[in-house]
Protein: Lysosomal Pro-X carboxypeptidase
Amino acid sequence: MATAKVKPTILVVRLFFLVTITLSSQPSLASQSSKSNRPSSKWAPRFLGRFSQPPNQQQQYRYETKYFSQRLDHFSFSELPNFPQRYLINTESWVGPERLGPIFFYCGNEGDIEWFAENTGFVWEIAPRFGAMVVFPEHRYYGESMPYGSIDVAYKNATTLSYLTAGQALADFAVLIRELKRNLSAEACPVVLFGGSYGGMLASWMRLKYPHVAIGALASSAPILQFEDIVPPETFYDIVSNSFKRESTSCFNTIKESWDALVSEGQKNDGLLKLTETFHLCRKLNKTQDLADWLDSAYSYLAMVNYPYSANFMMPLPGHPIREVCRKIDSLPDGTSILKRIFEGVSIYYNYTGGVDCFEVDAEDPHGLDGWNWQACTEMVMPMSSSRDVSMFPTFDYNYSSFQEGCWRDFRVKPRPRWITTEFGGHDIKATLKNFGSNIIFANGLLDPWSGSSVLQNISETIVALNTEEGAHHVDLRAATAEDPDWLVEQRATEIKLIEGWINNYHQEKKAIFYM
Structure:
């Protein structure tokens, strides 16, 4: 196993903001040589997936569930109805305001907040060490934090969805923190932000946008650079593909060849029926693209949760799940068809426990993530493409016009691809963070396909990149286990030490002010 190493690198580059852009929409799986369109917001990149398991209803951590009445629009004075923002809170370890007990505040993601709370054991486990309060607020328009009283009304059209933005969500968090501190006489207590994936993006942006509200942020697997032309659009799928290729070249090649085999089979008489049987689908396949999307999702999420131990975040999976998928694909007898190999391999993701009799390729989203389609069609415009040589996926270029058409058809809205970088920055991020930021940890496992669009170099003494070669999607935020490799233990120890430094410095500054 490789050990986690942090090598400080400081780089200052000329700041610029004017760029030209194009954005992506994957093509239909007609052929890898043709460039047809996949024109729906459904195909915007997602951090989580509708083919993953529903939230775990068995609580591992104790908390109270409370609700806070939030403004629907923080940036106008219009009289709009408030909505109840759900948040989970635990004060059992908190040493209280007299001792300036810290508040550990997780920036809620695009889904049910209980799911994220159950899968963020790191925050719960270190809270007693710091005497910290733990708060998990839910992101507006997800879970139970639904404006207008119901998801049907909230998601009705572009007007009712217009308040689903990252800026509004950060304002929710800032207002909630201030009200909690006021109600608990804890105005002087320091706040430390945590977040993984989209939540990590929010944590880093909140530290930059509201530096007076929180003293630092741990942003794990936060792809804050996956916008405009900041990183190559093929980055995500290249990393997914390399994760398979590093385990087995033959496995990589089998998957790469399978797309043509899938199309060829689907075009035959009764081909869709044959595919339905081969992949044990619950109902007859309508088109090959649906099956291709199902496979695409599995490979992408396998790369995200390629943890070194068994886990149950997206699906019940073994440790090193990509290794197990490739082992299954490669171990079948000579003469086994490509599609049969693919089915056996992907069953590691969709049916590792063996309890599924048939598969739904159009399964409903169990996490309530549909709001992400809106976010991706408005401000979270993340260009994606698949390269011909490096990627094991069908080749496609990104196409902003097609993407824009899909968003207009789905939501009657036009994307604003430059807004996120206008609001939070992104271009020449090293110079920006060096000049205007402090106390942010960017943690990334380099097996995670989202790592390619995160901050991977140290910016300053207080803005640190922790990269682990064997790490996957925000693995550092997961609960500690007996199976944790040394590099993961070391990474978490480094994060604890940095957070400890933030809090100690804050206390020292407070004492200095008191004695002045």
